[in-house]
User: Which sequence fits this backbone?
């Protein structure tokens, strides 16, 4: 099936590696700012570990979510679209709740997470739907 | 929309995987169609009908609520 915007399947495994590395190091960085946030280049004025981790999650997440399946057809395309709609709605529902109930510095933390949650929700939902359709055998 | 792909498949002695391979989709797609969880595109319906040498109306039917 001819599809728009999707990369070949071979990039998917590469995407998973980047994505999982990014998520894990992102969680570690959030928990332990002092020790983990080291300088890659000694003497370089700005500490850019968070930039690297963000790039890993975004590039990895895009590769995982938007590469073709082994057999890419219209049904999997529909699953992908449905997952995207679901993820966007969930993301903004959660964001709306946090806008109302969380303020100031804490809200900044919410915004940091919110940079990645649409992709993460989408990937979780898409893979859940794929697993579900896989397990519904004859 | 309903269909009788499962019946046609039995007549031609094909598994879901066989049929999927012949028309170039995944087995999950065939499974989802047979369970009426997925309405195939016109292209896919025509491919299935052509494979079974039937007209599309012989395989796919509208339901009252469509």
Assistant:
């Amino acid at each position: 099936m001819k599809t728009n915007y999707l990369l070949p399947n071979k990039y998917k495994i590469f995407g998973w590696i980047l994505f999982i590395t990014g998520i894990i190091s992102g969680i570690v960085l959030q928990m332990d700012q002092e020790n983990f946030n080291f300088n890659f280049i000694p003497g370089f004025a700005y500490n850019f570990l968070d930039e690297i981790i963000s790039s890993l999650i975004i590039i990895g997440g895009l590769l995982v979510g938007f590469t073709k399946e082994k057999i890419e057809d219209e049904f999997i395309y529909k699953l992908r679209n449905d997952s995207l709609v679901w993820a966007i709605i969930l993301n903004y529902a959660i964001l709306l709740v946090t806008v109302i109930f969380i303020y100031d510095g804490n809200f900044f933390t919410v915004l940091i997470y919110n940079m990645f949650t649409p992709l993460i929700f989408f990937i979780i939902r898409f893979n859940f739907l794929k697993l579900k359709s896989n397990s519904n055998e004859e | 929309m309903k269909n009788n792909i499962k019946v046609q498949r039995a007549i031609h002695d094909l598994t879901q995987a066989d049929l999927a391979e012949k028309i170039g989709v995944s087995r999950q797609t065939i499974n989802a169609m047979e369970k009426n969880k997925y309405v195939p595109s016109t292209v896919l319906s025509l491919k299935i009908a052509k494979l079974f040498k039937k007209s599309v109306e012989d395989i796919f039917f509208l339901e009252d609520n469509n």
